[in-house]
Amino acid sequence: MAKKTIAIDGPAGAGKSTVARLVAKRLNYLYIDTGAMYRAITYKVMQQKIPLDDHHALTELAQNTNIKLINRNGRNLVFCDEHDVTEQIRDPEVSRNVSLVSLVPGVRQKMVQLQREMARDGGVVMDGRDICTVVLPDADCKIFLTASVEERAWRRRKEFEVKGYPISWESVKEDIMQRDLLDSQRAVSPLVKSPDAYLIDTTGLTIDTVIKRILNLCLGDD
Ligand code: C5P
């Protein structure tokens, strides 16, 4: 069967990464986590102490940064200019700043260029905010994943806890709402459901159910 391109968009904590990774594994496709790429550039911006409102400096930095997503022994690693930043980019401080970096048009231009190169040969599952609308408008299958903000906050809190960041549910919920607002109201490539994307509300659904639904929608596979 010809290798397809599967695009998945949705707000923070909707389950995109977990589901996209497992769908890719099941199909033996490449998984491309575009959120990890925006987090990696944000981490570099923070390391270099560049003010987040200096869009000129952020654009220049992005143009001179190379980000690679590598699967090594089943682990998805994120490299920023040869440095492994897989763990660092999950820091809550990166989560708080990433939406301010990703609204900069010059930063997005570089990331979209890298993302299209990665998807060039098909056989990819790519997740993010603007994949169906901007990065891969001709994707074979488009999905918009969402869930109630309460459930998304529980999921993210659990992830932070596992990684050793004990944060209250209220604070995670506040961050998620703030990020959703910035992501959906920015001028360039806002988070919006593409009219031709299938909507899946994952509230109360198991991961397995969501995966089966996506495989069914994209490949007609049960
Ligand atoms: O998916 P994740 O929550 O890791 O994404 C982190 C942030 O990166 C998002 O809140 C958004 O600001 C940005 N992002 C984006 N476009 C994408 C993927 C992520 O602007 N395609």
UniProtKB/TrEMBL annotation:
Cellular location(s): Cytoplasm
Alphabetical list of CDD domains matching this protein: CMPK
Sample GO molecular function, one term: ATP binding
Keyword Cytoplasm among UniProt keywords: yes
Domain Cytidylate kinase: 6-217
Keywords from the UniProt entry: ATP-binding, Cytoplasm, Kinase, Nucleotide-binding, Transferase
Enzyme Commission identifier(s): 2.7.4.25
Record's GO cellular component terms: cytosol
Catalytic reaction(s) noted: dCMP + ATP = dCDP + ADP; CMP + ATP = CDP + ADP
ATP-binding in keyword set: yes
Binding-site residues for ATP, renumbered to this chain: 10-18
BP-aspect Gene Ontology terms: nucleobase-containing small molecule interconversion; pyrimidine nucleotide metabolic process
Top enzyme class: transferase
One Pfam entry name: Cytidylate_kin
Stated family: Belongs to the cytidylate kinase family. Type 1 subfamily.
NCBIfam families from the UniProt entry: cmk
UniProt name for this protein: Cytidylate kinase
